[in-house]
Amino acid sequence: MQHIEIEPTYKSPRVIFNPKEAKFMIAGKSVLENVQEFYSPLLNWMDEFLEKSPANEVEFTFDIEYYNLASTKRFLFFLFKLKDVEEKGGHLKVNWLYREKDQDILEMGQDLSQMLGIPFNFKGYEKLHKSVSLN
Fold first, then answer.
1. pLDDT tens by residue, 4-46
2. Cα pseudo-dihedral 119, 70, 7, 44, rounded to 10
3. Which residue, among 75, 77, 97, 60, has the nearest Cα to 30 in the 3D structure?
4. Distance (Å, whole) CA 71 – CA 36
5. Among candidate residues 132, 71, 129, the one with its CA nearest the CA of residue 100
6. Does residue 108 sit within a domain?
7. Domain span at residue 56?
8. What percent of the chain has pLDDT over 70?
9. Is residue 134 part of a domain?
10. Spatial distance between the Cα atoms of 129 and 27, rounded to a whole number of angstroms
11. Residue 80: inside a domain, yes or no?
12. Order of strands, sheet of 23-30, starting from the edge strand that comes earlier in the sequence
């Protein structure tokens, strides 16, 4: 599987999918007009990764600054797919980063975690920062 890295724009998030380490990240703004066009290839890639990968541990980090409702649905689609990792006996780690003053982002993460029954690691930070890597 090929490593994916997409640089952010003023409407789309940074995306890093590292299949070798089974670490994935979506960071920044996601206020796309056509979320289907942006996220469909990534969701298909994730399907292929989960089908072919022997990974027992998968880590997915969300570091969302701003989003629209259509993007939230796509985050949910990723999480539904990743839930299969645990159902097959693997370990799923979901990191949810948020600006401490932005309770909406925190609450969205809490809602997604509760809806899916997946525990998230919530980590607040003070200032806006640029997500650079998966480490």
1. 999 999 999 999 999 999 999 999 999 999 999 999 999 999 9
2. 70
3. 75
4. 9
5. 129
6. yes
7. 4-125
8. 93
9. no
10. 10
11. yes
12. 4-6, 14-18, 23-30, 57-67, 91-99, 120-125
